[in-house]
Amino acid sequence: MTVNYLPRPGAAVEDFETPALVVDLDVAETNLRKMQSFADKHGMGLRPHSKTHKSPYWAHKQLDAGAIGITCSKVGEAEVLVDGGVREVLIANEIVGAKKIARLAALERRANVAVAVDNAENVRELSDAAEAIGVKIGVLVDVNVRIARCGVEPGEPATTLAKVVDGLTGLRFDGLMGYEGHVTAGEEEKRQIVAEAMDKFKYAKDEVESAGLQVQVMSAGGTSTYMETAKIDHVTEIQCGSYIFMDGKYLDEMSDFDLALTVVSTVISRPTPERAILDIGRKSMNAETGLPRVVSPTGATLVGLNEEHGILELEDEAQGLRIGEQVRLLPMTAATTINIHDFYFCVRNGILEEVVPVAARGRFW
């Protein structure tokens, strides 16, 4: 792929080809340190979820700051992380099918890769694949504590599956995973929701341990719930991901971290004084949770997003906007916007420092 449009370090944002996925390094690194500091203060392991950044570059920054490992969702993402030098990975998802399982087992030769499970047949297939090449795969039994997605129920179902895992020579029973999901609520309601979910999680742990198994890992939590989940005694690690960049969805709910990621676009048409057209559309910015918001200039609102065009409505103060000028946009969901782009353009004080590939872009298999 020809990428001769890429700017060189030292270039100003104003000189970037657009649409461009731009990260303010100072802000992202501050967010990263802040979450790590919080986890350290509470004696909590931080295993950041890479489904947001999809990049060994950011994973290594998180590990260097003190993260105990990295979380991902798919074998393809884990392969990118391990190829990029990450040696402690949790695939927080069920992996099925002989080919994917074989790829997962092969990763165990180069890194410590654990996986979530919720099905006995799948567990046996994982063990067989591991035994076939002489490795042992770490396993977390996925427990449904709230969102009714994947996961066995706490109590007898979780205990039975944990015993199956523990009895297989190709697997290592590490513990339990219980993701409480994204929680949109006020502080008190959020506290109650998390407490109820984590009570179920503790019940699962108690039952597994009463069956004679040792539960070393209790993995839970996300960016929306980290502050409450990290205070739960029986949780050993949290899987926050979006905090590193933030997006409109999270900024609407919390002010703990600052905006580090925007998409920079260019005005390509000024059909009327009240309307401007941008070189950005749904092929370069996700809008499933709402239209992106204009960060700058003030007085401009994105009111439409077609495949390759963004439609701005301009108030009086923004009607001086000219063709060729840039507009910065805030995605409502960072992860699905990042997955559209090939590169991060990482800047300090508006000057390019590094061009970083979105290495796990599209690695959903």
Model description:
The protein starts with 19 loop residues before the first strand and ends in an 8-residue tail after the last strand. α3 (75-83) packs parallel to α4, α4 (98-107) packs across α5 (120-133) and α6 crosses α7. 30% of the residues lie in helices and 24% in strands. Strands 1, 10, 11, 12, 13, 14, 15, 16 and 17 form a nine-stranded mixed β-sheet that branches. The protein is of the alpha/beta class and 365 residues long. α6 links the parallel β6 (137-142) and β7 (171-177).
Classified by CATH, the class of the largest domain is Alpha Beta
Which structural class should the secondary elements be placed in? alpha/beta
Question: How many strands in all?
Answer: 17
**What multimeric state do the chains show?**
single chain
Q: Share of helix among residues?
A: 25-40%
| Largest β-sheet summary | 9 strands, mixed
Write down the overall geometry: elongated
Structurally, the number of domains stands at 2
How far apart lie the N and C ends?
Answer: 22 Å
* Low confidence ranges: none
CATH architecture annotation of the largest domain = Alpha-Beta Barrel
Rg from Cα? 22 Å
Measured by DSSP, the beta-strand proportion falls in 15-25%
Q: State the order of secondary-structure elements, H for helix, E for strand.
A: EHEHEHEHEHEHEHEHEHEEEEEEHEE
In brief, what are we looking at here?
The protein is α/β, with parallel strands linked by helices and 365 residues long. It starts with 19 loop residues before the first strand and ends in an 8-residue tail after the last strand. Helix 6 packs across helix 7.
